[in-house]
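Thread amino acids onto this structure.
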């Protein structure tokens, strides 16, 4: 195992590369970084002694959030932890998209084990990102101490890294732990890493840390975000592919919603303009507002008013066949692989209006024939469409989520009027001005309407599983576990299952899995539990 932290750089993308950065415990998957060509690397004692290189190194932490690696292959970009593969995990663990091929079969059917690829690589790459963030934080602090960068610059850079650290830890919580609602956060959590494991002594120190509780992890990640909010401004020279004050506040809203702290969600949302009167909303921080068209955050994914934080992608960054969003989502007739389709049961749902622009702008139908007969005629998400250059950015937080998070919090605390205004702002954006489906009075079940709107608005963005997870113990709105799922064999190949007039319901032949079933949460990789005696495995794995 290499003991020397190094930075590999290529143009304006710098990636922290060292074996000790690749795993939570620091004791496996190290070999691939032991033989590196010196000409394209900078040792840590060089990076943090030059102000320009310090800032450049932060780009490497962002890059780690996008690309990751797959099964010990640094060159096999799979879109972990916040690229294509991880977004698909959020969809495939739910029921609103259908697995068509074998690529996501294990996730779709909850057949994962302690060695299955997707859950293992999510764990490994999330902790790799966390460790890179920690390494950067320590380096930036040291650079400020020695006067290489100013204390103010160090606080700003550290805040961006803390944002990514919090985002990564929360992703671990929603896949590997029970929700906060269970035992009020008293369930077993995940190790919250705040030190860089870049030496044998630090690895030994990390091995002493157990999983703690879910509540303890939430306390730590909110502390990270409070620090970041205090030290970030509402502007950045990079755009929304870097953390800003607004992105931090929006993430705090999401996390407090998962925590069930609805007053906290409202308080954070007020900073972003969600308490305003009227029917349109604008954030005083960073200037967020809903885009005029529901497809604009995707067709103009690098420049629009709605995106709060996204992961930048290009043909050079996360453009691998298994790492690019259009490869995962587009049908084969449009340059994709046809791996997952929109479920007819979402497409036909009564809560999704037939004239909703999200049908015509953000869904695409594959129409193919074989021997003169229709085959594989399904609807696919059209949010990611650059199959050639693979430049689609991964949406992590949009202002639409800010509004719907606040709407839910208001609905749960009795302010139906404000909840309805926020909900209607998102919904009406996708309805023609003369649509008979526009409404002027709150639905009888405002909460259910908001939750259903989330399913339509965020379809294909990986948000379905987080909602299933956080609502698992809700007395009224819980899915009561992993919902039953439609299989490819349940579908007619001619596309007739998709019909917004008759709205047929396709029987889901893959049975639901109860919340109490051990499969509701993922197992920790066996390599990690074997390396760390304090890392307790999830029950029954």
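Threaded sequence (541 positions):
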């Amino acid at each position: 195992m290499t003991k020397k932290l190094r930075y590999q750089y290529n143009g304006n993308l710098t990636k922290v590369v060292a074996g000790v950065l690749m795993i939570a415990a620091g004791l496996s998957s190290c070999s691939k970084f032991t033989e590196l060509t010196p000409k394209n690397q900078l040792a840590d004692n060089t990076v943090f002694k030059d102000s320009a290189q310090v800032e450049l190194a932060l780009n490497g932490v962002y890059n780690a959030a996008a690309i990751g690696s797959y099964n010990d292959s640094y060159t096999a970009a799979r879109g972990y932890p916040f690229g294509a593969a991880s977004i698909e995990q959020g969809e495939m663990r739910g029921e609103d998209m259908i697995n068509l091929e074998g690529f996501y079969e294990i996730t779709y059917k909850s057949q994962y084990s302690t060695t299955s690829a997707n859950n293992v690589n999510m764990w490994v790459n999330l902790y790799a990102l966390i460790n890179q963030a920690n390494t950067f934080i320590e380096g930036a602090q040291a650079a400020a101490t020695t006067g290489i960068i100013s204390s103010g610059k160090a606080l700003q850079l550290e805040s961006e890294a803390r944002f990514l650290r919090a985002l990564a830890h929360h992703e671990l919580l929603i896949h590997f732990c029970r929700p906060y609602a269970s035992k009020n956060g008293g369930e077993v959590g995940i190790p919250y890493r705040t030190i860089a494991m870049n030496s044998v002594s630090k690895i030994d120190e990390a091995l002493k840390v157990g999983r703690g509780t879910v509540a303890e992890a939430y306390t730590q990640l909110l502390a990270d975000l409070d620090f970041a909010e205090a030290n970030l401004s509402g502007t950045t020279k990079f755009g929304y592919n870097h953390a800003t004050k607004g992105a931090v506040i929006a993430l705090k809203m999401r996390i407090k919603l998962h925590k069930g702290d609805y007053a906290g969600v409202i308080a954070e949302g007020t900073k972003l303009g969600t308490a305003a009167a009227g029917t349109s909303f604008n954030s005083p921080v960073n200037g967020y507002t809903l885009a005029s068209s529901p497809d604009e955050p995707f067709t103009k994914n690098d420049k629009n008013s709605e995106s709060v934080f996204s992961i930048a992608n290009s043909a050079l960054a996360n453009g691998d066949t298994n790492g690019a969003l259009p490869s995962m989502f587009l049908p084969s007739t449009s340059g994709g692989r046809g791996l997952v389709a929109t479920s007819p049961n979402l497409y036909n749902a009564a809560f999704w209006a037939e004239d909703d622009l999200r049908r015509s702008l953000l869904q695409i139908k594959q129409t193919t024939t074989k021997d003169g007969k229709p085959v594989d005629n399904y609807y696919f998400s059209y949010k990611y469409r650059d199959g050639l250059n693979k430049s689609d950015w991964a949406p992590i937080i949009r202002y639409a989520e800010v509004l719907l998070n606040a709407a839910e919090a208001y609905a749960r605390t009795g302010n139906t009027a404000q909840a309805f205004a926020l909900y209607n702002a998102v919904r009406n954006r996708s309805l023609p001005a003369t649509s008979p489906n526009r409404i002027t009075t709150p639905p009888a079940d405002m909460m259910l309407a908001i939750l259903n709107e989330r399913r339509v608005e965020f379809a294909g963005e990986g948000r379905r599983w987080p909602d299933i997870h956080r609502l698992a113990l809700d007395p009224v709105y819980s899915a009561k576990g992993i919902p039953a799922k439609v299989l490819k064999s349940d579908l007619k190949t001619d596309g007739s299952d998709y019909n917004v007039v008759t709205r047929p319901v396709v029987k889901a032949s893959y049975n639901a899995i109860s919340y109490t079933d051990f499969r509701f949460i993922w197992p920790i990789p066996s390599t990690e539990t074997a390396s760390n005696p304090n890392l307790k495995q999830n029950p029954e794995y």
